[in-house]
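Protein in question passed on here:
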Amino acid sequence: MNTSPVNSTPRRLFPRGPWRRARRVADVLRTETIGGVLLVTAAAVALLLANSPWREAYTALAGFRIGPAALHLDLSLATWAADGLLAVFFFVVGLELKREFLAGDLRNPRTALLPVAAAVGGMAVPALVYVAINLANPGALVGWAIPTATDIAFALAVLAVIGAHLPTALRTFLLILAVVDDLLAITIIAVFYTDQLSVPALLGSLVPLALFTLAVQRGIRSWWVLLPLAALTWVLVHSSGVHATVAGVLLGFAVPVLGRRRVQGVSLSEHFEHRWRPLSAGFAVPVFAFFAAGVTVVGGDGGGIGAALADTVAVGIVAGLVLGKTAGVLGATWLVQRCTRAELSDDLSWWDLLGLAQLAGIGFTVSLLVGELSFGAGTPQDDHVKIGVLGGSLLAALLAAVVLRARNAHYRRIEEIETRDDDHDGVPDVFQEDDGARRDD
C-alpha cells in the first residue's frame, strides 16, 4: 500500500516565479516603459500638428516620397515608418517569441495555458464585438481585426503613472500576454491582409533569409554581413505583397536561443534583443506613431469626431477595445481557473485582473497599422479608425486607472515584500524562499 504523502497544495494562478525571470521582466519593462512615454509624446505631437496651422506641412511631410523607384520602393515617409521601422519592432517580437517558446514561460504548457488563453480571448471577443456592431455595414467588416491588439509600450507608459507598484506576477502576465498577442497579430496581418501575392518574390526572400539563418547559427554578428541579408529579405517580402513587417518576425525566429554560442554569457538572441529593443522602443515605434496618429479631430477629410461617432467603424473599435478586451481577457482567465481548479495567489484578487484586462484594451501601434491595411491610408475611414483607436485606448486607460489606483496601497505592500533583501545578497528574500519551496516540492 502506497503511504507516500500526497501534495495537496492547489495550483496557483499568477505565481511570483523565480528571481531570474522577475529580473529579466523588470529590465524589459523598464525599456518598454521609456519607449511608451516616447510613443505617447510622439502621438500627442502628431495630434497637435494635425489640428494646428501647420497641418498641411505635417501632411506634406508624411506624404514625402523617397527611395529607388526601380525597386518599387519610392515610398512615403509614413509608409517607410509603417513597413520599414515596424519591421524592427517585429524583429524584436520574433526574438522574444522564440525565446519564450524555447526557454521561457511558453515552453511549459502548464504556465503557457493562462497567457495564451487570455491573449486568444482578448483578440476573439473584440473582433466579435466589432463585427456585431458593423453587421449592417458590410464594407466596414474588413476592419474586424483593428481592436484585437494590445500595445505593451503604451500600456506600460500608463502603468508607470497609475500603477508603478504592480506586483511582479501581474507584470509578467501582461508582458507574456502581449508577446502572444503580437504573434497572433502578425499572423492575422500575413493571412488576412495580403491582397496580391507574388510567389516568385516570396520564394526569392527565402534565399537571403536562409543565408541570414546560417550566419547567425554559426555565431556571426558582423553588421556588414547580417544587415544586407536582412534588408534583402525585407525588400523581397515587401515586393511579394505580404506585409513587410512579417520579414522582421521571420528574421527574429532565425536567431538561435539555445546552444553553446554565447556573447558575454548570454545567447545570441538575448544579445540582439538587448541591442535592438532600445532602437525599436525608443525610435521605430515613436516615429511610426508620429506619422500614424495625426488626425484632424474637428473637420478635415474624415469629418472629425462628430463624423467618427456616427460611423460604426469607430464605434466598433471603441467597444472592442474597452468592452471586448476586458471581457475576453477576464473571461478566458476565469475559464482557465474553472477548468484547472486553480486558485489565485493569496495577495491577488479578481479586481486586479479586471484592471489588467482593461489595461489590455490599450491597442495603439498594431491597431493603427491594421486600420491602414484595412481601409487605406488617408481615407475618411482611416481617420475614423484613428479617432476610434485613440479614443478607445484612452478610455481603457482611464478605466484601468480607476481600478488599479484603488489597489495601489495594496500593491505597495506587495512591493515591499518583493524588494526586501535583509542579507544584502542582491536577491530579494521572498524569491529565495519561493525557490526553496519549489525544491522541497
Notes: The domain at 24-193+243-413 is CATH 1.20.1530.10 (Na+/H+ antiporter like fold). The chain has one domain: 24-193+243-413. Confidence is low (pLDDT under 50) at residues 1-8, 437-441. Strands lie at 12-13, 65-66, 75-76, 262-263, 266-267, 343-344.
